[in-house]
Specification:
heterodimer; A: alpha+beta; Ubiquitin-like (UB roll); DNA polymerase, domain 1; 2 domains; five-stranded mixed β-sheet; B: alpha+beta; Uridine Diphospho-n-acetylenolpyruvylglucosamine Reductase, domain 2; Uridine Diphospho-n-acetylenolpyruvylglucosamine Reductase, domain 3; Enolase-like, domain 1; 3 domains; five-stranded antiparallel β-sheet; four-stranded antiparallel β-sheet; 10 helices
Chain lengths: 163, 276
């Protein structure tokens, strides 16, 4: 079934015609070309497809595109225009090697954006709980946690420009 | 992309939602947070021909204090159940159960009504609701009824809801002052369903302990003497005689853990009651 929707994606209001069988991650990647959001499991486990829906993190494989009519979506593309313009959280991940293959990173970073909004100085345990819904298949968690602690520090210090 | 075609409906009122569910009673599905239904549709396991999304029905998202009860709308998301002040004060075990579900993203989207209507035997809420004596309000095109939580769960993912009937509200009686409560879960990983979970409520009268995760439906025990912990443990082990095995645990292990977690939950509730 085709259906018109209005949705704001990364600040741009869009009017789209969608297939109701599409889930949100399919809409973002296939219809809008926003391939920064990844598809891992399609079962709500891995968190690679994490995006912000009305300002909170959700797994976009488990949200129907039809259900974002009238809502606001923000993806990893909203944080940065490219390698020279990395968000402080992304800078901290690079500096601490908080990524190996990088597949989980977009979802991981968005979970961290929300964590640091709510808790600017998280403990390592709080970081682990906050990213429990983002699986790293390379199992590089130690460096991810370290990256988040440093990202928190950068953010508290007013996020200086790229290193 | 989901392979099966379906009609999508997004009503904004309960009455429109139940009319749509009545019109699609055969193969229609109510969609709440979608944390179970959408993955099942992605995999082709669930193949509804019509989906009635409740995500626009704002009148289903509330936590309301109503005298000696608290009422929770079915579309209230886990994150809100976990953090809402009246719930944290009156039912800390319910807040604890909500904050143990899945992960941040799941709690942001998943709903209490969706979890109850889906009736996974290991869902975090179920023993808590049984121990608290919850009841559920359901609405259909034919009218409205209230179902006691003890009569609601009929089997693995099977409930007393009829086709076309929508769970709209969870009603919880406020426990008396000085009550002791607890919620405990046994899980191998953060975010995974528990292998066993238990909730206990100890006030002046007979204590209640409910155990989930081990049998097809959670079970509730009333205890005249909650201090007799050996008896609590063996009663729960007896009640879990039909415990199921899966890849994570054998039936015997689940049955043993039903006893252990019932005992620990009662012990924790007694300690809380003594501690004031």
């Amino acid at each position: 079934m085709r259906m018109p929707i209005s949705v704001t994606v990364n600040g741009s209001p869009l009017r789209l015609e969608i297939d109701t069988r599409q889930n949100l991650v399919g809409l973002l990647r296939e219809q809008l070309g926003l391939t920064g959001t990844h598809v891992g499991c399609s079962t709500g486990n891995c968190g690679a497809c994490t995006v912000l829906l009305d300002g909170v993190t959700v797994k976009s494989c488990s949200v129907l595109a039809a259900d974002v009519d009238g809502r606001e979506v923000a993806t990893i593309e909203s944080l940065s225009s490219g390698a020279d313009d990395l968000h402080p959280i992304q800078q901290a991940f690079v500096a601490n090697q908080g990524l190996q293959c990088g597949f989980c990173t977009p979802g991981m970073v968005l979970s961290v954006v929300k964590l640091l909004e709510e808790n600017p100085e998280p403990t390592a345990d709080e970081v682990r709980r906050a990213i429990a819904g983002n699986l790293c298949r390379c199992t590089g968690y130690q460096l991810i946690v370290q990256s988040v602690i440093e990202a928190a520090k950068l953010t508290r210090e007013g996020a200086p420009a790229a290193a | 992309m989901i392979t099966q075609e379906f009609q999508f409906h997004a009503p904004s009122t309960i009455s429109d939602a139940v009319a749509l569910l009545a019109a699609n009673a055969e193969d229609g599905k109510a969609l709440a947070g979608g944390m179970s239904l959408v993955p099942a549709m992605n995999l082709g396991i669930a193949r509804p021909t019509a989906v009635v999304s409740l995500n626009r029905v704002e009148e289903l998202d509330y936590v309301r204090e109503d005298g000696d009860r608290i009422r929770i709308g079915a579309m209230t998301r886990h994150a809100r159940v976990a953090s809402e002040q009246p719930i944290a004060e009156a039912f800390p075990l319910l807040a604890r159960a909500a904050s143990a579900i899945g992960d941040v993203q799941v709690r942001n989207r998943g709903t209490i009504g969706g979890s109850i209507a889906y009736a996974d035997p290991a869902a975090d809420y179920l023993p808590v609701l049984l121990a608290l004596g919850a009841s559920f309000r359901a609405v259909s095109a034919a009218g409205e009824r209230t179902i006691d939580s003890r009569e609601f769960f009929l089997g693995v993912m099977a409930t007393a809801l009829e086709p076309g009937e929508l769970l709209v509200e969870i009603e919880l009686p406020r426990p008396p002052a000085g009550v002791g409560t607890s919620y405990l879960r046994l899980a191998r990983l953060e975010g995974s369903f528990p292998l066993a979970n238990a909730a206990a409520v100890v006030d002046g009268g007979p204590a209640r302990v409910a155990v989930g995760g081990t049998t097809a439906t959670p079970f509730l025990l009333e205890l005249d003497d909650p201090e007799a912990l050996d008896a609590v443990e063996s009663a729960a082990r007896d009640a879990a005689v039909g415990a199921f095995p899966d890849l994570a645990a054998t039936a015997d292990y689940r049955r043993a853990m039903a006893g252990v977690y019932a005992r620990r939950a009662v012990e924790a509730a007694l300690a809380e009651r003594r501690g004031g």
